[in-house]
Design brief:
This protein is an all-alpha fold. It is built from 3 helices and no strands. Helices cover 85% and strands 0% of the residues. Helix 2 runs antiparallel to helix 3. The protein is elongated, with a radius of gyration of 19 Å. The N and C termini lie far apart (62 Å).
Length: 97
């Protein structure tokens, strides 16, 4: 099952990088994060003597995931607000005329 998760994370990362990065550059960062997750899961499957989800390695993964979540959430909120302002701006002009 760990191999399936590794393949899944790699596929999601590659889709984000190659398909969606044209829409917004933040998808390059998100895709890189998912590629990191794929590598992490694959390394955990290939190295059974080391548990990469426990101890110091687990804490490192949680810190990296948390930092990526914060960066992606802040970027999403900024983009959402910018798009909402752009969508409301033409309505304001029409109502003034």
């Amino acid at each position: 099952m760990q191999y399936f998760y590794a393949i899944l994370w790699f596929a999601v990362g590659l889709i984000l990088i190659f398909s969606l990065s044209k829409e917004n550059r933040i998808f390059l960062f998100a895709g890189g994060f998912f590629l990191l997750l794929g590598a992490w899961w694959l390394a955990d499957a290939l190295l059974p003597e080391v548990d990469l989800f426990a101890g110091g390695w687990g804490i490192a993964l949680r810190c990296i995931s948390g930092a990526a979540l914060v960066v992606l959430a802040v970027t999403f909120v900024r983009e959402y607000r910018k798009n909402r302002k752009a969508a409301n701006a033409p309505e304001d002009k029409d109502s003034k005329q």
